Predict the 3D structure of the following.
Amino acid sequence: MAYYSSREVMSVPVEMEWAGWRADTFTLQRNGWELSAEQDVSMQMIQIAARHRQLGFRLLSGRIPWEYYADMRFDRGSIPTIPVAHIAGDIRVREVIMSNAFGLSPIDAQPRLREAEPKSLDDYAHFAPAVADKQLYVPQETADDLMKRILDMQQDARIERIKNNIREGDKLREQKLYANVISLAA
């Protein structure tokens, strides 16, 4: 596709405004807002929703026209500022007018290079899909406490292996020396 090389960046920051307050999508995400968007490429529409868990706020824009094809050509002059229609602690939707309305999906608002050539119309969406975070939870213990816990967890299995070796008549293997620590401090 000839036009693929002309647009390599996804999730270029988009300004949002509400009652004189302005921020772009990247800044919102960096400051704790979780963003979602309905990016309807075929209907040329976009809608953004966001929430901030610590502040207890949610926001929702209206569905606005979006020139995906101009965006695809990297024509930044065609990207509108998105007005926020609602901001509150809780937003409830009573009536859905369009059958595909509120097809919101999490997005990643950090600009990045496109990793693969687009293969379908939906691949030309402005925002990249969100990547699930892999979280690592570490107990608040010292290294000594953690090492003791690990050894305690392994102790039962080690004792069972020794008992099995004795039952089978095998001699216990001697530990092998693989490395020596040499200190050159004088």
Summary: Confidence is low (pLDDT under 50) at residues 1-6, 97-101. The longest strand covers residues 33-40.
